[in-house]
Write a structure and sequence with these properties.
Blueprint (H helix, E strand, L loop, with lengths): L18 E6 L2 E5 H8 L13 H8 L10
Antiparallel strand pairs: 1-2
Helix pairs in contact: 1-2
Length: 70
Amino acid sequence: MQSIESFQGKHRFLSNFWPARVKLDDVEYPTVENAYQAAKTLSGRHVFLSCRAGDAKRLGRGVTLRADWE
């Protein structure tokens, strides 16, 4: 059995940054990363709709976390 050591090459599609439409609360985000960052907060989710996954990750560091996030 082969182990996956990184999300590169043939395993790139496993990355949260891979383009894949993800629906969260009836809104579609362009990647898992964008949806994940939007899920962390209850306000300002719209910023995660059109940015790149790396930008979503950076923006997500500054959001106000939901009270139930932990």
